[in-house]
Amino acid sequence: ERCTGDRLTITITDAEFNNIGNTDESTEGGSVSLTYCILTCTNSRFISCSTSSTNGGAIYFLNQKEEGKKCTISNCYFKQCHAGQNGGAVFFSQSKHETSDILNCIFESNNAGGTGADLYANGQSISLQNCSFANKDSSIKGPLLVLQNTCQNGFSWSNTITKCTFIYTSG
């Protein structure tokens, strides 16, 4: 959904997205696709969500224009989500300086056709706290987590990873 006018904040609480797939090659995100919004997602589960040829198997979040649009995901569980491109579970792309937060989340056995099997974040500051990233799938491409930042007009972004665990076992 493209957020305009009054529809600037999307809140998802205590929801379950199970076996939701997006096969439309022109639409990003498997179960949630948001552009130019504020997203707060809490206490929700994303199981086997996918997008066949685009980014963000469970959640796709894009903000390239507006200040004050950030994403907070807390106490969520992502399992066996897949993206045809980047961000098997979650894909963020933001060019305005906002810090998106991912707190107390579990990412388990997600994958992407590109990179960032669990999470792909581009061009923004991100804070990861008390999250678990675990994958036992030896066929995944690239890392579980990709934080790709750029510098614009002399301003650079920063990332923090606090008390997170990363487990990868093949076979």
3D structure, described in words:
The protein is mainly beta and 171 residues long. Helices cover 0% and strands 48% of the residues. The protein is built from no helices and 23 strands. The chain has a 6-stranded parallel β-sheet with strand order 1-5-9-13-17-22, with no helix packed on it. A 6-stranded parallel β-sheet has the order 2-6-10-14-18-23, with no helix packed on it. A 5-stranded parallel β-sheet has the order 4-8-12-16-19, with no helix packed on it.
What is the averaged pLDDT score? Answer: 82
Helix/strand structural class: mainly beta
Strands of the widest sheet, in order across it, are 1-5-9-13-17-22
Q: Which regions have little confidence, pLDDT < 50, spanning 5+ residues?
A: none
Q: Supply the number of helical segments.
A: 0
Radius of gyration: 15 Å
Listing every helix as H and every strand as E from the N terminus to the C terminus, the arrangement reads EEEEEEEEEEEEEEEEEEEEEEE
Number-wise, the strands total: 23
How are the SSEs placed, and which strands pair?
Layout: E1 9-13, E2 16-18, E3 21-22, E4 32-35, E5 38-42, E6 45-47, E7 50-51, E8 59-63, E9 71-74, E10 77-79, E11 82-83, E12 90-94, E13 99-103, E14 106-108, E15 111-112, E16 119-122, E17 125-129, E18 132-135, E19 145-148, E20 151-152, E21 155-156, E22 159-162, E23 165-168
Parallel strand pairs: 1-5, 2-6, 3-7, 4-8, 5-9, 6-10, 7-11, 8-12, 9-13, 10-14, 11-15, 12-16, 13-17, 14-18, 16-19, 17-22, 18-23
Antiparallel strand pairs: 20-21
Provide a brief overview of the structure.
With 171 residues, the protein is mostly beta strands.
